[in-house]
Design brief:
With 311 residues, the chain is of the alpha/beta class. The protein has 13 helices and 10 strands. It has an 8-stranded parallel barrel, surrounded by 5 helices. Helix 12 packs across helix 13. The longest helix is centred in the C-terminal third of the chain and has 18 residues.
């Protein structure tokens, strides 16, 4: 696979030992997984972080930060704030890396917004496009990709009820297509396969239990299969997060390595069938990020699957 067209990125935090381990494992570039500290240090990242984080290895993407409680800075939240400096700093970091590495860098952000709300929230939509327009003008080497989310947010401690998310399927691709009417290919999607597989599992159970819905000839938008995910992201997907889940898919069960070769091969056949040419980030959970066993195993499995498809 190393000599093929398929590019593989590795997810990494700002940790020198972890970055070096991912480089040893083998990858074509890094997707930086920003943490809550970037919310406080992003305005001075050039001096607040080690320069080697940006110069050690090719940087291809940066993911907007996570808060301490694990929640993500979703697009529908950060772009409606009066102060958009937290996400501006992410764009500024991406531009900084793009200039160092002489290529465009992708900013990745989640959205759980339904398309209905996106169209109804006229003031938010107007502000989103105004701010994005300014960011794209200020940071010409930075593009944006919006990632599909899991069907609900769930905290293991049971302190809160699960929060169902709206934008889990066709919502995201519809929103991105609307943004592309103004910004063209500078906006795309990220297809997270773990999130998609979780949605397929949860929605299958829900639809089977919903006796008020027809069980034959379901409308296309109720098809939550993995193949349908690949089909609707076709042509607008900029990056795939390649990982799996176990159990309920939350906490330690989230972003697990691919261990089922048949499943991995099926996903790569969809990649080939729908003529994808975007890179894959192996977003894999590890017991020890200084020894990325799961990343190495998933990379080897992916090598085998892709080689068999392209042979």
């Amino acid at each position: 696979m190393r000599g093929s067209k398929l590019k593989i990125y590795a997810k990494a935090s700002f940790d020198s030992a972890e970055i070096r381990e991912k480089i040893r494992c083998g990858c074509d570039g890094l997707e930086y997984n920003l943490q809550e500290d970037f919310l406080h240090r992003g305005s001075c990242f050039e001096t607040c972080y080690l320069q080697e984080y940006f110069t050690m290895y090719n940087v291809e993407a940066v993911h907007v930060p996570f808060y301490a409680n694990g929640l993500v800075m979703n697009m529908e939240h950060v772009f409606q704030h009066e102060d958009v400096s937290p996400v501006r700093n992410v764009f500024r970091l991406a531009q900084y890396c793009a200039e160092l590495w002489k290529h465009k860098v992708l900013v990745v952000i989640h959205s759980s917004l339904s398309y209905y709300d996106y169209m109804e929230f006229e003031l938010f939509r107007r502000r989103l496009k105004e701010v994005l327009g300014q960011f794209f003008a200020d940071y010409p080497m930075v593009d944006l990709a919006v990632e599909n989310v899991i069907p609900m947010e769930y905290k293991q401690n049971g302190a809160e009820s699960p929060r169902l998310c709206n934008g889990t399927f066709t919502d995201l691709t519809s929103i991105v297509c609307d943004l592309r009417e103004q910004f063209g290919e500078r906006v795309g999607t990220v297809l997270d396969l773990c999130h998609a597989a979780m949605t397929e599992k949860y929605m299958k159970v829900l639809l089977e239990a919903a006796d008020f819905l027809p069980h034959k000839n379901l409308p296309e938008h109720l098809d939550y299969s993995m193949e349908h995910y690949f089909r609707i992201h076709q042509g607008i997907c900029r990056l795939i997060h390649f990982n799996d889940f176990t159990g309920n898919g939350y906490a330690q069960n989230h972003g697990t390595p691919l261990e089922n070769e048949e499943k991995a091969a099926a996903w790569m056949r969809f990649y080939d069938k729908y003529a994808y040419d975007c890179p894959l980030t192996l977003e894999i959970r590890e017991a020890d990020y200084k020894n990325c066993v799961n990343y190495r195993n998933t990379l080897a499995l992916l090598d085998r699957c892709y080689s068999s498809i392209t042979a």
